[in-house]
Amino acid sequence: MNSAASVRKLTVRHRRTTALDAVDLAFGTGVHGLLGPNGAGKTSLIRVLATVAPPTSGRVELLGGDVSAPAHRTAVRRRLGYLPQEFGYYPGFTVREFVAYVAWLKEMPRAAASAAVEGAVARVGLTDRIDAKIRTLSGGMVRRVGIAQAIVNDPDLLLLDEPTAGLDPEQRVDFRALLRELGRDATVIVSTHLVEDVAAACTEVTLIGAGRVAYRGTPHALAALGEEAGAEDFGDNPIERGYAVALRRHRSGAAPTTSGWSVTR
Amino acid sequence: MTTNLLLYARSRALPVTVGVLIAAAPATAWFADWLVSGSGLGPRARQPLVVLAPLLVSAAIGASLYTHSEELDRTAVRPWWPRRACQLLLLTAVAAGLLAMAVPGESQVYGAYAMARNVLGSVGVTALAAALIGARLSWLPMLVHTGAVYFTARAEPGGPGAVWAWSVQPGPQRAAWWTAAALFAAGTCLYALRGARPEGPGSRR
Question: Residues in domain ABC transporter (chain A) (predicted)?
Answer without folding.
Answer: 5-235
